[in-house]
């Protein structure tokens, strides 16, 4: 249960980190909070030759609100984000979802961007990013670029980031008349969910972001379209069978997952009441 | 090998260590602070809980090199300073430990709860805060009792 040997560098700037990442290629890995990476290293599921520590870069730690856009720096810890007054007021879905991420000692270290870039299909934040129609900010040797959340999570633990790109932050569009809901089912507090839902209703659009239902966090388009058009909740529940690639695993069968997903959709959307 | 400088339980420390060494191993093997226990070494059990710059963390999920220039407090520090004397007494009085393996991490996490919790915090809130610390002996009831007792005592003192 000890990590294999590796070298370690803590660059002073994001630019230096990107240069190092370009230079060392796939043998290097970024570390920020390390709350997913270090278990993988300790279990020897991963053995990079070099860790590039971006955990102290102040330029990745901003939380700002401007032009109806909330920006959360990738290096902010979960604890910092969930307790931040701007996030609590303007993106309460994020603050709520983070209360379900592991435990206080993990949330003190784990980072917002780290969780998104890790793209664990059972993690809460990717589903929130999809539901909120967030935009990812990436930076690489060629400069910055923006990636819509809907195009970011490409496969199991895979994202649209190039090998030499760093996720620097996330933009979340803020609208006054937004309803949101969050629910997940796990056997124990802090465990990964068997199924979870982050839902956002804005004028004219409902987005249902699901996690622990497949290879990536996923939007349920058919169910959301039914709800957006004012259709019955039960029809949306039925449509989930086509939306979610529910799978069997040791935690739950596909049939149980689909059943639980419908339970969550009724809880979350039912609580919104008459629309 | 990498050189680090940090403060551990108020004492300045400089050491040269391999980057792969995690903080809990550094505390135990290099500094002899064996109160920090190792259970799972992948962030699940909470036995290695220590304070890093004031916040509780998993000692097995922080590299010692990441603690460079930081302040670390362990169960030895909290115990020697008397910060958790009442909590330790409550653990003993309520029989909140049997084998004691989880106890240092449990006390670190419980103290973190007590420092931040509202005075009227519920047993459910105690359970939730301690949910990342495993105990295989007590069934948790006595641990929650001890934390609740300390919460009530501190409120009235």
TrEMBL record, chain A:
Keyword Oxidoreductase part of the UniProt annotation: yes
Gene3D superfamilies: 3.30.465.10, CO dehydrogenase flavoprotein, C-terminal domain, Uridine Diphospho-n-acetylenolpyruvylglucosamine Reductase, domain 2
Keyword field contains Flavoprotein: yes
A GO molecular function held by the record: FAD binding
Source organism, top-level taxon: Bacteria
InterPro entries for this protein: CO_DH_flav_C, CO_DH_flav_C_dom_sf, Diverse_Substr_Oxidored, FAD-bd_PCMH, FAD-bd_PCMH-like_sf, FAD-bd_PCMH_sub1, FAD-bd_PCMH_sub2, Mopterin_DH_FAD-bd
Ranges for domain FAD-binding PCMH-type: 1-177
Any Pfam family hit: FAD_binding_5
Transmembrane segments: none
SMART domains: CO_deh_flav_C
Keywords (A to Z) from UniProt: FAD, Flavoprotein, Oxidoreductase
Protein name per the record: Carbon-monoxide dehydrogenase medium subunit
Organism field: Acidiphilium rubrum
Top-level taxonomy: Bacteria, Pseudomonadati, Pseudomonadota, Alphaproteobacteria, Acetobacterales
Automatic annotation (TrEMBL), chain B:
InterPro entries to which the protein is assigned, alphabetical: 2Fe-2S-bd, 2Fe-2S-bd_dom_sf, 2Fe-2S_ferredoxin-like_sf, 2Fe-2S_ferredoxin-type, 2Fe2S_fd_BS, Beta-grasp_dom_sf, Diverse_Oxidoreductases
Ranges where the 2Fe-2S ferredoxin-type domain occurs: 2-78
Keywords: 2Fe-2S, Iron, Iron-sulfur, Metal-binding, Oxidoreductase
Keyword Cell wall biogenesis/degradation: no
The keyword Secreted appears for this protein: no
Lineage: superkingdom: Bacteria
Gene3D superfamilies: 3.10.20.30, [2Fe-2S]-binding domain (1.10.150.120)
One Pfam family named in its UniProt record: Fer2
UniProt GO molecular function: 2 iron, 2 sulfur cluster binding; metal ion binding; oxidoreductase activity
UniProt protein name: Carbon-monoxide dehydrogenase small subunit
Lineage: Bacteria, Pseudomonadati, Pseudomonadota, Alphaproteobacteria, Acetobacterales
